Automatic annotation (TrEMBL):
Single biological process term from Gene Ontology: arginyl-tRNA aminoacylation
Annotated family: Belongs to the class-I aminoacyl-tRNA synthetase family.
InterPro entries: aa-tRNA-synth_I_CS, Arg-tRNA-ligase, Arg-tRNA-synth_N, Arg-tRNA-synth_N_sf, ArgRS_core, DALR_anticod-bd, Rossmann-like_a/b/a_fold, tRNAsynth_Ia_anticodon-bd
Motif placement: 'HIGH' region: 129-139
Official protein name in the record: Arginine--tRNA ligase
Organism: Natronospira elongata
PROSITE patterns referenced in this protein's UniProt entry, alphabetically: AA_TRNA_LIGASE_I
EC number(s) given by UniProt: 6.1.1.19
RNA sequence: GCGCCCGUAGCUCAGCUGGAUAGAGCGUCGGCCUCCGAAGCCGAAGGUCGCAGGUUCGAAUCCUGCCGGGCGCACCA
């Protein structure tokens, strides 16, 4: 609809250039059409005349008059006015709004979708939490935000590949395996002081128990041999040295094969739990990409080769460095340590190179806000490997702070005293959780009040929107109970009988949906969609309270039902995009 | 110290890539159910858009400086 207005203006512009009224260089001026905020200003407004005033050396109002004069006729437009400093205001005809209702039915669940993004393949990485324990509420925000952005991008036609990067390599994983093994020893009757830096959650004990069921006493070792001669743990000693010593001891006493068994059991258990959790949260991935596969598949070496080609890799102090500073990073980065091991930075850029080599035009990473330091170095790395730095787009998700009423809840994976995503889901429900997570801009800190999200009444916005949907369903149920036969065709044929302000308003809001979806997708801003859904629900509730739908006159009744049926469709489409259900009754 | 994010109504936040008189929810106050679901609707009060400059027809929005809050600055993962 916006598009159509824009085209009319384009033709007018073209005409004026050809007539010589406007200089040649204004031909390519980008036409901006926006929704008028106040309906007194019509339905759409264009600032074209103001933008052209300078190059054309004419005053904007005069120019606006010339543009209006040059506009081709259209039956969508009822009236055009010039207002203020030179705005061109368009008033649309009723037929224009009726066409929207028809379009909703024609497109059905795909109303609001488009294909404008079809030429850009997008790789979307999100959540990617270390598989060292259950997901907590911070990951939940990334999951809700990421999956909604994915839905929005798909809705505007982008091919989207959703991926979870599994950090299944490195020291944290070794600490995990060691923690499991220590719990295993405890289950075997050993008494030991659990390392302060180990993973303490109950899930560790569950995994240890499973290990015992599957492997019996195979991994049992005397406690003395495990702890003997290790550096002291905190508070008197160095907890890092202590845990590293324990890892070494575990590897040594168990042997590499048995250690791997413990390691893999822990990894697979936790990963399975995460998959199940995310799936139940309505978040699906196309691929779970293993960090270890980067090394084993030679991708890290390949990336290092590509990087070498830049000529910006040098050796110093026995390590290989990448001159990242030349590419806008704040300092140079080590890629291979003096012990010959590739750094985390090396595997990170190898991963991103791999994403590019898989054919994705744009890489979107959704990261926790504490990772913002990675952006510059990742872009630098990509450029060093001959890839465009701006093919990577990082979206940060700020922290979510959980409150139970006034009480702020503490979170820490290590201590085991966190609130998990699963607990949150069980407590407030998937719909409320998802809606709350994306309701605010991702760049904004989120105060998530459990009591509020749980409250089945009043101030919970997700219920407000869902209620609008349920209410419409209920109206159709009532119609049936009263013996009114609903005919959509009769309704469509009589839309011109709908002349109430509320009906007008509702149709206008329905027509905004495709624009909202596009803007929310382009801006990676799901909260713009939740905002819209509240507007739409409000229009429906207002209309409902002001007018009875199930009136005796058949034409008006069917026309009204037709309008609310379209509304129901749009509510459902919008809720589907954020992964929230559209209930028929509540 | 350097870098990134955020300062908008009492509270929580929008403000659509610079537009017309800055909006919504909650909270407060006052109304609306013999009538399709009151999980709803209508109305009122509430603002120096952190502060100061700058850019232009026009700034909450863009630029600079300052103030305040959060986060990050590893041969850790």
């Amino acid at each position: 609809m916006k598009e159509e207005i824009s085209q009319l203006l384009e033709q007018a512009l073209k005409g004026l250039v050809e007539e010589g009224v406007l200089p040649e260089e204004t031909r390519g001026t980008a036409i901006q059409v926006e929704r008028a905020r106040d309906r007194k200003h019509g339905d759409f407004a264009a600032n074209l005349a103001m933008m052209l005033a300078k190059p054309a050396r004419r005053n904007p109002r005069e120019l606006a008059a010339a543009i209006v004069e040059a506009l081709p006729a259209s039956d969508l437009v009822r009236k055009v006015e010039i207002a203020g400093p030179g705005f061109i205001n368009f008033f649309l005809s009723p037929q224009a709004w009726h066409a929207v209702v028809e379009e909703v039915f024609e497109r059905g669940t795909r109303f609001g979708h488009s294909d404008i993004g079809r030429d850009e393949k997008i790789h979307l990485e999100f959540v990617s939490a270390n598989p060292t324990g259950p997901l907590h509420v911070g990951h939940g925000r990334g999951a809700a935000y990421g999956s909604t952005v994915g839905n929005l991008l798909e809705a505007i036609g982008h091919p989207v590949h959703r991926e979870y990067y599994v950090n299944d390599a490195g020291r944290q994983m070794d600490i995990l395996a060691t923690s499991v093994w220590l719990r295993y020893l405890e289950l075997g009757g050993a008494e030991l002081r659990f390392p302060s830096n180990g993973y303490r959650g109950d899930y560790i004990i569950d995994i240890a128990r499973q290990l015992r069921e599957e492997h019996g006493e195979a991994f049992q070792q005397p406690v003395e041999s495990v702890f003997h001669g290790l550096p002291e743990d905190a508070p008197d000693g160095d907890k890092e040295a202590h845990i590293d010593g324990l890892i070494g001891r575990a590897r040594h006493l168990l042997g590499e094969e048995a250690f791997q068994t413990v390691f893999l059991t822990a990894l697979e258990d936790i990963l399975a739990d995460i998959r199940e959790d995310l799936s139940a949260f309505g978040t699906e991935f196309d691929e779970w990409f293993s960090e270890r596969s980067l090394t084993s598949g030679g991708m890290v070496d390949h990336a290092l080769e590509e990087l070498e080609k830049s000529g910006d890799v040098y050796e110093q102090d026995g390590a290989k460095w990448f001159a990242a500073e030349k590419y806008g990073d704040e300092k140079d980065r080590v890629v291979v340590r003096d012990n010959g091991q590739a750094t985390y930075f090396a595997s990170d850029i190898a991963y991103h190179l791999n994403k590019r080599e898989r054919g994705h035009d744009r890489l979107i990473d959704i990261l926790g806000a504490d990772h913002h330091g990675y952006i510059a170095r990742l872009k630098a790395g990509l450029e060093g490997m001959g890839q465009p730095g701006d093919s990577l787009e990082v979206r940060l998700v700020q922290f979510a702070h959980l409150y139970r009423g006034k009480e702020k809840l503490q979170m820490s994976t290590r201590s085991g005293s966190f609130v998990t995503l699963r607990e949150l889901r069980e407590e407030v429900g998937r719909d409320a959780a998802r809606f709350f997570y994306v309701m605010r801009s991702n760049e904004q800190h989120l105060d998530f009040d459990l009591e509020l999200a749980k409250s089945q009444s009043s101030d919970n916005p997700v219920y407000y929107v869902q209620y609008a949907h349920a209410r419409i369903c209920s109206v159709f149920q009532q119609a049936e109970d009263k013996g009114f036969q609903y005919s959509r065709d009769t309704g469509l044929a009589n839309l011109d009988q709908l002349d109430e302000d509320h009906e007008d308003q509702l149709m206008v809001t329905l027509s905004r949906f495709p624009e909202v979806v596009e803007a929310a997708a382009r801006n990676r801003a799901p909260h713009q969609l939740t905002q819209y859904l509240r507007d739409l629900a409000n229009d429906l509730h207002t209309y409902y309270n002001a007018h009875t739908f199930l009136v005796l006159e058949e034409e008006i009744r069917n026309a009204r039902l037709c309008l609310v049926e379209a509304t129901r469709q749009v509510l459902a489409n919008g809720l589907a995009l954020i992964g929230v259900s559209a209930p028929e009754s509540m």
